[in-house]
Amino acid sequence: MTKRSFLKQQVLMSLNEKLKVYGFKFKKFGDSFLQDTELGWNMLSIVFLTSSTGWNIRPGLLIRFNLVENLFHQISSFEEKYQKGTPTLGTSIEGLNINGPASRFELTEETQIDMVADKLFELFKSVGIPFFDQYKDFHTVERAINQDTNETHLTGPIFKGTKGLILAKILDHKDFKTLEEKYLYYYKNFSNGFYLSEYIRLTELLRDNYQDSWKE
Description:
Strands 1, 2, 3, 4, 5 and 6 form a 6-stranded antiparallel β-sheet that branches. This protein has helices at 3-19, 66-72, 80-83, 113-134, 138-146, 160-170, 176-189, 196-209; strands spanning 25-27, 32-36, 40-50, 55-65, 89-92, 105-107. The protein has 2 domains: 3-134; 138-214, no CATH class. The model has no long low-confidence stretch (mean pLDDT 93). It contains 8 helices and 6 strands; from the N terminus they run H-E-E-E-E-H-H-E-E-H-H-H-H-H. By secondary structure, the protein is an alpha+beta fold. Helix 5 packs across helix 6 (160-170). Strand 1 (25-27) and strand 2 form a beta hairpin.
């Protein structure tokens, strides 16, 4: 095992022990910790970026609503083996602009392992837990995504409109048609219209197959 691999392994093992009490389980694929919820899952993702001397570590927070994702993948281009792993919303902790540079860490030496694991755990408690609590239901997430159709920090630009429109439909949003038109304009102008056909397939799916049983 290389030194770099050892450092990564030890941080993840240490963090795993700390997160167990919160019901988060380590998932080796993606270096993440998963907590099942009634609507899907919460995830603490630890991104390890290679630096010249070790790792640059950037934690992220992701939430999945199974109903949203199952509808989305009826029209998405994701291979089936990846569909269970897609989040409905997510962001790096750094992207929340709460802790700034304190939301990323350098790991180059064995003596830093405990310190880095402790700091990641403190971020989980101070930022992660409130984040998961804030965005735990359809209504809150729908408002956060759709209140500004140009703001993409919780979804990324590619999935902004698809996830937002699905949530609006599930909740029978009174301005659903207006949102549909706004996102149509969004995808016509985003990335030279590359994702427009997928969005149109979604609008057709929601129009033809919507069921009252989708509602929260």
